[in-house]
Amino acid sequence: MNKQSTQKLEMFLLGLQQRITENSSFFKKITLKFKSGTKMYEGTIILQDDRLLFQYNGRNDKMEISWLGARVSKIAQEYEAVSLVYEERGTTIFIDADNKNVKMKTKDTEIAEICRDHNETSQISNRDYYIKIGAANDLLKAIGILSENGKIKNDMIRKYNQIDHYIELVDDILKSLCSGYDSINVVDCGCGKSYLSFVLNYYIKDVLKKNCNFIGLDISKTVIDASKKIADCLDYRNMQFKVTDIRNYTADRDIHLAISLHACDTATDEAIALAVKNNAKAIVMVPCCQKEILNQYTFDRLKSITKYGVLKARLADVLTDGIRLMLLEAAGYKASVVEYVSPLETPKNLMIRAEKTGGVNKAAIEEYKSLKQELGIHPTLEKLILPYL
């Protein structure tokens, strides 16, 4: 190739160097084809121990990322043309160079038509999915929703709809975070097998095209090991998992989003407290069983109603989440609550969403204290976060 083309090729490769440096957790590989006459010579470049391993012409050479442009363009001088395919999660870049020109084009990961040729189409909601079958097949197989032949398992249809609806409910929050920060840090409190973290990871990086990092926390080594195994299978290198009690965790980086799914009773309060203490920019919690307030509250004006056990328990659930919302507002968050799934599927169907909008709201604190006194309650969440307000 002539000097003009190799110089232009090197300029494009400098851009790839920068991508690899900034997105090392998402870089997959570079495939090269050098053409000389009718012969084609292939090479690959992968990342290994923060350096590039260049496999070409029977050799395995390690080089610094900063050498990529100079090394490949120098080899290209010896050939008539070169084709290069750069792959990272969610994006593929093609570069074709010869003596006439050097062209580059980008092709995002293809999005397949929803449930195309799917045997269970009649059982899938007629909606435009956020986590699409086809593009997200590797993810959906790893978390057990798709079978190996690419079909949704019959007993996983409801779960698929639930995780997709979860993304729908947090989409605005995610896009707001993506517009405000270069990379999104997410902590999953009581992560279990972390399937929501895997889905969020895919959606933020592969669909929204934003860098992200995830930390999953759980007291169970068994589920942490299972999460690590799935992350390795998917090659999601931007995920960490720690065996720890969330009450003992202090973040070593900014938290942009804190999530928790079905953390039982006061474990949800511990997750909210972790988020507040670490000044998380957004919080999404789906609580589970609520016991604490049920065993504490009295409300004489409603004793004719709360004497019925099931009604007292349901009111306790409402009070528990209502108090959480009040305390989040006291901590400077704009909070809301929505139904995550239909109550016909599970009574544990509420999602608390909150976004940091300001400082401590003293009026909300006083309103909470008045309600607390009237109900005769001593919530765990108050003990965990009021000292920080």
From TrEMBL:
<dbReference type="Pfam" id="PF13679">
    <property type="entry name" value="Methyltransf_32"/>
</dbReference>
<dbReference type="GO" id="GO:0032259">
    <property type="term" value="P:methylation"/>
</dbReference>
<protein>
    <submittedName>
        <fullName>Methyltransferase family protein</fullName>
    </submittedName>
</protein>
<dbReference type="GO" id="GO:0005737">
    <property type="term" value="C:cytoplasm"/>
</dbReference>
<feature type="domain" description="Methyltransferase">
    <location>
        <begin position="158"/>
        <end position="295"/>
    </location>
</feature>
<dbReference type="GO" id="GO:0008168">
    <property type="term" value="F:methyltransferase activity"/>
</dbReference>
<keyword id="KW-0489">Methyltransferase</keyword>
<keyword id="KW-0808">Transferase</keyword>
<dbReference type="InterPro" id="IPR029063">
    <property type="entry name" value="SAM-dependent_MTases_sf"/>
</dbReference>
<dbReference type="InterPro" id="IPR025714">
    <property type="entry name" value="Methyltranfer_dom"/>
</dbReference>
